[in-house]
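re: the backbone from monday

yeah here it is again, tokenized this time
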């Protein structure tokens, strides 16, 4: 039985090409520069309008005095200033909209990286628990475990965290899910692991299928469900449920290959 050199395929949504990052970094402050230039233009326009309004003599029109409030502010200049500030506000909102879109994209990219790291961890765990290692000589097995330790230590130097808002019960539910999946991975029997993984996947589908059955009147059966896993899954956030389902699909693809080879 051969060990699959790529046990778990990494997610394809994230690009490893550094050129895209370089091209993006070149435009990081372009819109901020444009905001600065627009603000300077607005200030010059406000200054010129104020100077034009102040060229007339006070003796020519009594309205010059009536246009000045108690604080000594020219109402004509104040009107021009209000228009300039309104345009500046629109420009700030436009820039913040761009930043908001880029922050959301950055968060999605970080989630993809986090998912990629999780898949790598899962691949290492699968290799560590591979049954073929048990048939090796002790010296060979020790060499493999040392190599696994080096790879895992290098992976642990990368720290990624995208904060998902969870309450205490949701944190506990996610921790329980991770423990159950880890136990499934370390079973050592691909057939048993595959059956367990299928029950976990059925638990992920049961809620959606129950909703469809209620809405369309269709009787659906997701198959045998692990009730303990399902209970913990329902306590997780929606984002966590999606990630768990994606993780189980990748695991099932690998376990199917292992079962066929056996």
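seq for it, each position gets an aa:
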């Amino acid at each position: 039985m051969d060990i699959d050199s790529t046990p778990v395929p990494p997610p394809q949504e994230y690009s490893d090409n550094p050129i895209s990052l370089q091209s993006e970094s070149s435009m990081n402050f372009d819109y901020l520069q444009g905001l600065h230039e627009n603000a300077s233009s607005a200030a010059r326009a406000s200054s010129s309008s104020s100077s034009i309004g102040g060229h007339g003599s006070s003796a020519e029109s009594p309205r010059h005095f009536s246009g000045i409030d108690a604080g000594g502010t020219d109402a004509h200049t104040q009107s021009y200033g209000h228009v300039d500030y309104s345009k500046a506000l629109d420009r700030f909102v436009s820039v913040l909209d761009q930043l908001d879109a880029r922050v959301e994209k950055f968060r999605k990219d970080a989630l993809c990286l986090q998912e990629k790291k999780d898949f790598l961890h899962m691949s290492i765990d699968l290799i560590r628990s591979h049954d073929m290692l048990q048939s090796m000589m002790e010296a060979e097995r020790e060499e493999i475990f040392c190599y696994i330790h080096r790879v895992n230590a290098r992976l642990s130097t990368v720290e990624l965290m995208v904060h998902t808002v969870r309450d205490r019960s949701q944190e506990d539910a996610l921790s329980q899910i991770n423990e159950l999946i880890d136990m499934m991975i370390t079973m050592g029997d691909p057939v048993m692991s595959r059956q367990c993984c299928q029950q976990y996947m059925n638990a992920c589908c049961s809620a959606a299928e129950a909703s469809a059955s209620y809405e369309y009147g269709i009787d659906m059966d997701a198959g045998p469900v692990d009730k303990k896993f399902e209970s913990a899954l329902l306590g997780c956030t929606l984002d966590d449920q999606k990630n768990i389902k994606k993780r189980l699909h990748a695991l099932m693809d690998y376990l199917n290959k292992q079962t066929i080879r056996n």
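The chain is about 70% helix and 0% strand. Residues 10-15, 52-82, 210-220 have pLDDT under 50 and may be disordered.
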